[in-house]
Amino acid sequence: MSFKFMLYLASKNHLITLEQLLKQCHLWSDTQPSASAMASHAPFACDTMAFEQWLQFIFIPKMAELVAQEHPLPTTMAIAPMAEQMWQGMTDYVELIRHLHDFDALLSQQ
């Protein structure tokens, strides 16, 4: 197997796990943010939605599309630091933050 194929496979698995962890932490929503919230240009859409909403409704779908289309993946992703800041001191989210660190590290190895 090529490195590229393994990277896409690992990324797909990270996205699946991220969704599962968000659900386990009760951070998954059945209600999509408004169209105006989704159109935010701020980093992590921090001006219009919660970080977990950004992960669910923007990050996961965009990354899943990149993986499915085998488009280039970001090489310098830093999602975990934002998660650490947003969920500082929230021990229930430690595994979720650790997973985001692992995903950041995976993509930086390209």
TrEMBL record:
This is YqcC-like domain-containing protein. Residues 13-106 form the YqcC-like domain. InterPro entries: UCP006257, YqcC-like_dom, YqcC-like_sf.
